[in-house]
From TrEMBL:
Originating species: Sorangium cellulosum (strain So ce56) (Polyangium cellulosum (strain So ce56))
Pfam families: ApbA
Gene transcribed to yield this protein: panE1
Keyword Oxidoreductase recorded: yes
Superkingdom field: Bacteria
Name of the featured protein: 2-dehydropantoate 2-reductase
Length: 281
């Protein structure tokens, strides 16, 4: 199939690499230093030197009827690519990033018949000096079984959800406290105190409560189970996790995404998000 990845950062590069290796014709659309690097390499290059050749472009060519355009920019960056997506002859456009907002705006911008959302739930990816390091575990979730099959065949085990909006919101509720703790511990170079862990656990519970209040069942099922753990246990888990390298690395990505997600929750549930606003990094 003919595919474009719009926003070839860590996640976009992971999908571009896997899909190109699986035999798809992939165009990586990037900007700035990442574009320069891709133009030089003409491939997604892994830290171990493995390469997957891709075509490279600075903008999405609207005249190309791609079978799939995968949009892997960050939520605040998506508005700048919507005009190009609207004009694109692509047959399917899948957005893939953390968000808590209603999805109608994006769906209406590109047309409901070719719109979907996915999330790289099992992927951990970084670009290190322009080279990709990625770990792919099961957990990527999409709204459409046909694309789950395509991604699965490309080495990205993917499941489907009938309520991607609820899935994204459930995920945001879980990841906000983790990202926010990450920011704190990356600065401090030490774990959080028990008292702080209690605040993050309260914010976690509030996020889950809000998602349910907005009419979604928590997804995936394991998250629904997690949300029923006693508060002391979630406090302890967050306290422990704050002492791991993983959370420090997560925090090193910066405060922009957790701040944005908290603001989105507070907008969706006005006057209900005090605990979440209290942990805004
Ligand atoms: N990395 C990971 O392991 C995981 C990430 N996620 C989520 O996936 C989403 C994507 O994350 P990630 O890939 O890490 O983020 P990145 O910031 O690495 O990737 C976004 C990319 O899109 C580029 N971009 C933005 N606007 C444009 C544009 N107009 N034209 C071309 N390129 C553009 C950015 O360029 P620039 O740098 O110049 O802004 C950047 O290269 C996030 O919501 C993240 O939370 C989820 C699971 C795992
Ligand atoms: C993996 C992580 C926490 C970091 O990028 C992430 O973005 C997500 O799962 O939402």
């Amino acid at each position: 199939m003919k595919m474009a990845v719009l926003g070839t950062g860590a996640i976009g590069s992971t999908f571009a690499y896997q899909l190109a290796k699986a035999g798809h014709e992939v165009t990586a659309v990037a900007r700035g230093a990442r574009l320069d690097r891709l133009r030089e390499d003409r491939a997604i290059v892994l830290t171990d030197g493995a390469r997957a050749p891709v075509a490279v472009a600075g903008t999405l060519d609207p005249s190309v009827p791609y079978d799939l355009v995968l949009v892997t920019v960050l939520a605040p960056q998506v508005d700048s690519v919507l005009p190009a997506l609207r004009q694109s002859a692509a047959r399917h456009i899948m957005f893939m990033f953390n968000t808590f907002e209603p999805l109608d705006r994006l769906r209406d911008a590109v047309g409901a018949e070719r719109f979907s959302f996915g999330f790289p739930g099992g992927v951990l990816a970084h670009l290190i000096d322009g080279k990709l390091r990625r770990r792919i575990l099961p957990g990527t979730t999409v709204g459409d079984a046909a694309w789950a099959k395509v991604f699965g065949a490309a080495g990205i085990p993917t499941v489907t959800s009938a309520d991607m909006h609820g899935w994204l919101r459930s995920h945001a509720a879980m990841v906000i406290p983790l990202m926010s703790i990450g920011v704190v511990v990356a600065h401090r170079n030490a774990g959080i105190t028990w008292r702080e862990a209690r605040r993050y656990a309260a914010a976690l519970a509030q996020g889950f409560h809000i998602v349910r209040g907005l009419g979604h069942a928590l997804e995936p099922a394991v998250l629904a189970l997690f949300s029923r753990l006693p508060r002391t246990l979630t406090t302890g888990l967050l306290w422990l996790m704050s002492r791991t390298q993983e959370l420090r690395k997560l925090g090193a990505l910066g405060a922009a995404e957790p701040r944005m997600l908290i603001d989105m929750v507070a907008t969706a549930a006005p006057h209900q998000a005090a605990e979440l606003l209290a942990i805004r990094p």
